[in-house]
C-alpha cells in the first residue's frame, strides 16, 4: 500500500526518516510541501503511524497504489459537523435559550452514548415547539459555515465524474439550501413541521437515522448504476457508521473516536479537500 501523509502546514524534513522507518516503506516521496507519499508501506504498522501522526498533527491514509478518484461514482456526506461546521439543531435551540441542553443530547448521540438516535432527535425537536420558523433562516444566514475545503472537494469530485449525496439526520431546510448553493445531486434529511409560522416540535415522515442513511446510500448507488463499494462516505458521528460501512471508502472527518476507529481513514487536521489529495499521483 501507499501511505499518504498530509498536513495543513509544511511537513518538516525531520519527519521523513521516522515516518519511513515506522511505515517500513520502500521509498518516501515529497509530492509538495504539505504532502508525502511512502510507497510499499506495511499496513500492519498502522498503530505506530497513528500514534506518530496524532502527536505531530499529521493526517495519514493507506491507499492502493493504483487507486484513482475516478474509480468511485458517488461521494456521500453527512451534513452537521462534516460538510458544515455547526450542528444546526443546537444553533436553532439557541434562539429559544436551550442550546446547552440540546447540545448535550446531540453530543451524547454523536459519541454513541445514546443508542436510539431517533428517540434522541425526537426529544431535541420537541424542545423547539413554538419557536418562530424564521430562526431557521437566521441559522443559515448567520451561523452556518462550510467546513474547510468543502467546495474544493466537491469541485474535484464532480470533475472526476462522481455524483454527490448529502444525507443528514438534520433538516431539509438546510440540506435544500446547500443543494441549491453547491449544486449537489441528491439529498435526504428530516422535515420539521411548521404551522402558522411556528415549529410544532414534531417532524413529518420517516426519521433519517443510521439505518435510513445506509439505505439512502444503497438506493442512490442503485439509481446511478454503481455498486456501493464504489461510493465514498464521509461522516463524524455514530449515526454515520452504518452508511460508512456500506461504502468502499469510509472517511472520518474531525470525527468522534468511535467513528475514527471504524473508518478506513480519518481527516483530523486537514480540510475536506484532503480527500482529493489522496489521489494526487
Strand segment count:
11
CATH architecture grouping of the domain at 1-66 = 2-Layer Sandwich
CA-atom Rg in angstroms: 20 Å
Fraction in beta strands: 15-25%
Parts with pLDDT < 50 across at least 5 consecutive residues = none
Strands ordered across the widest β-sheet: 8-7-6-5-9-10-11
Catalytic activity: O-phospho-D-serine + H2O = D-serine + phosphate; O-phospho-L-serine + H2O = L-serine + phosphate
Pfam family, one: HAD
GO molecular function, one term: hydrolase activity
Keywords: Amino-acid biosynthesis, Hydrolase, Magnesium, Metal-binding, Serine biosynthesis
Characteristics:
281 residues; alpha/beta; Alpha-Beta Plaits; seven-stranded mixed beta sheet; four-stranded antiparallel beta sheet; 11 strands; 40% helix; elongated; hydrolase; hydrolase activity; magnesium; HAD-like_sf
Amino acid at each position: 500500500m501507499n501511505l499518504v501523509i498530509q498536513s495543513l502546514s509544511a511537513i518538516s524534513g525531520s519527519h521523513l526518516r521516522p515516518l519511513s522507518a515506522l511505515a517500513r516503506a520502500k521509498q518516501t516521496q515529497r509530492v509538495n510541501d504539505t504532502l508525502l507519499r511512502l510507497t510499499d508501506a506495511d499496513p500492519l504498522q498502522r498503530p505506530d503511524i497513528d500514534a506518530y501522526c496524532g502527536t505531530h498533527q499529521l493526517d495519514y491514509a493507506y491507499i492502493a497504489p493504483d487507486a484513482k478518484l475516478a474509480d468511485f461514482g458517488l461521494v456521500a456526506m453527512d451534513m452537521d459537523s462534516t460538510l458544515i461546521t455547526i450542528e444546526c439543531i443546537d444553533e436553532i435551540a439557541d434562539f429559544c435559550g436551550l442550546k446547552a441542553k440540546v447540545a448535550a443530547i446531540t453530543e451524547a448521540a454523536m459519541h454513541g452514548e445514546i443508542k436510539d438516535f431517533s428517540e434522541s432527535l425526537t426529544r431535541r425537536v420537541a424542545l423547539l415547539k413554538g419557536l418562530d420558523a424564521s430562526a431557521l433562516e437566521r441559522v443559515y444566514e448567520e451561523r452556518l459555515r462550510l467546513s474547510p475545503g468543502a467546495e474544493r472537494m466537491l469541485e474535484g469530485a464532480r470533475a472526476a465524474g462522481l455524483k454527490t449525496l448529502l444525507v443528514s439526520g438534520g433538516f431539509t431546510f438546510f440540506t435544500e439550501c446547500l443543494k441549491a448553493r453547491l449544486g449537489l445531486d441528491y439529498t435526504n434529511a428530516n422535515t420539521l413541521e411548521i404551522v402558522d409560522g411556528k415549529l410544532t416540535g414534531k417532524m413529518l415522515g420517516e426519521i433519517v437515522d443510521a439505518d435510513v442513511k445506509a439505505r439512502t446510500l444503497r438506493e442512490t448507488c442503485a439509481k446511478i448504476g454503481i455498486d456501493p463499494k464504489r461510493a465514498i462516505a464521509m461522516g463524524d458521528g455514530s449515526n454515520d457508521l452504518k452508511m460508512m460501512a456500506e461504502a468502499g471508502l469510509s472517511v472520518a472527518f474531525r470525527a468522534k473516536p468511535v467513528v475514527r476507529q471504524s473508518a478506513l481513514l480519518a481527516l483530523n487536521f486537514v480540510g475536506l479537500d484532503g480527500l482529493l489529495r489522496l489521489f494526487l499521483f
